[in-house]
TrEMBL record:
It comes from the Bacteria. The gene is pdeR. The chain holds residues 384 to 664 of 664 of the full protein. Residues 24-276 form the EAL domain. This is Cyclic di-GMP phosphodiesterase.
Length: 281
């Protein structure tokens, strides 16, 4: 074999690495084009308050590839972050969401939308000027956008994170800490940032009614959040038992397949009309 004869050392790429390099190159040519050709699409997922109202949605990007079909964000966001393409991609998301919110406003559907923002996007100020410009262009007197930052955003550069949070807040956007509990930030670090809410990661939510460790963690996190005046949003709520535990223990808003999957704007509108009709009774 190659190994026995010493030829193995010339084998630089394993098949697995080859696959990854191939994937990187595929994304490198195609994601840029996707942005130019308008192949990205936003799906919206509602969040439901304790009283059963939907006041806010989360915007989740997907890629409609002619070659591969609908591609989930986990398959291209990290590439976009590494390559820097996340900056124009993030701008597209923000502006597309703003336009959609303006269309909804025309129909008297007044909802806030939370947009995911990567650490890499925070380093340049255009995100604020773009948002301000869009608010002006679309005649918004208030900001209907909230932002979801991950723990890595806060940790990589605390000073920058602090300024960024203040800048978003000054514009009228709420700032939410996404996937809370999965990163390296601690409960004590929460106090340092003027956040509006934390989003409890799905890993705490999954089967929480059966897992005593998750139950303790959820209770502890909610207690700290309440002490710091932060709202708690649970993501990935899939069944009524999880939901019952979370609501009973002080979670303010819930989001998950139990209520609705992320869906295109038109499908969301239909879902919302049905939801309003059902909850009005
Ligand atoms: P995230 O921000 O934590 O979003 C929540 C993810 O959980 C979404 O996955 C959503 O579809 C999924 N989810 C919601 N409810 C349930 C549920 O009940 N069960 C399960 N199993 N999953 C649920 P998605 O849409 O695949 O997005 C994955 C991640 O991609 C997001 O996680 C976010 O980090 C990132 N992402 C999505 N859109 C954007 C974007 O526009 N910009 C940036 N920078 N990142 C984005
Ligand atoms: Mg999110
Ligand atoms: Mg999340
Ligand atoms: Mg998550």
């Amino acid at each position: 074999t190659a190994k026995e004869s010493g030829r193995g050392k010339f084998c630089v790429f394993s098949p697995e690495m080859n696959q990854r390099v191939f994937e990187y190159l595929w994304l490198d040519t195609n994601l840029r084009k996707a942005l130019e050709k308008d192949q990205l699409i936003i799906h919206y997922q509602p969040k439901v308050t304790r009283s059963g109202e939907v006041r806010s949605l989360e915007a989740l990007v997907r890629w409609q590839s002619p070659e591969r079909g609908l591609i989930p964000p986990l398959d291209f966001i990290s590439y976009a972050e590494e390559s820097g393409l996340i900056v124009p991609l993030g701008r597209w998301v923000m502006l597309d969401v703003m336009q959609q919110v303006a269309k909804w406003r025309e129909k008297s559907i007044n909802l806030r939308v939370a947009v995911n923002v990567s650490a890499r996007q925070l380093a340049d100020q255009t995100i604020f000027s773009d948002l301000k410009q869009a608010l002006r262009d679309l005649n918004f007197e208030y900001c209907p956008i909230d932002v979801e930052l991950t723990e890595s955003c806060l940790i990589e550069n605390e000073e920058l994170a602090l300024t960024v949070i203040q800048q978003f807040s000054a514009l009228g956007a709420q700032v939410h800490l996404d996937d809370f509990g999965t990163g390296y930030s601690s409960l004590s670090q929460l106090a340092r940032f003027p956040l509006d809410a934390i989003k409890l990661d799905q890993s705490f939510v999954r089967d929480v009614h059966k897992q005593s460790v998750s139950q303790s963690l959820v209770r502890a996190i909610v207690a700290v959040a309440q002490a710091l005046n932060l709202q708690v949003i649970a993501e990935g709520v899939e069944n009524t038992k999880e939901d019952a535990f979370l609501t009973k223990n002080g979670v303010n808003e819930r989001q998950g397949y139990l209520f609705a999957k992320p869906m295109p704007a038109a499908a969301f509108e239909q879902w919302y009309q049905r939801y309003l009709a059902r909850t009005a009774r």
